[in-house]
Amino acid sequence: MTATQANEDKNQSESDRFQSFETFWPYYLGEHKLKTCRALHYLGTVGSAVLLVFLIAAQQWNWLPLVLVAGYGPAWIGHFFVENNRPATFTYPRWSLMGDYKMFYMAVRGELRGELSRLFGTQSKS
Question: pTM score > 0.70 for this model?
Answer without folding.
Answer: yes
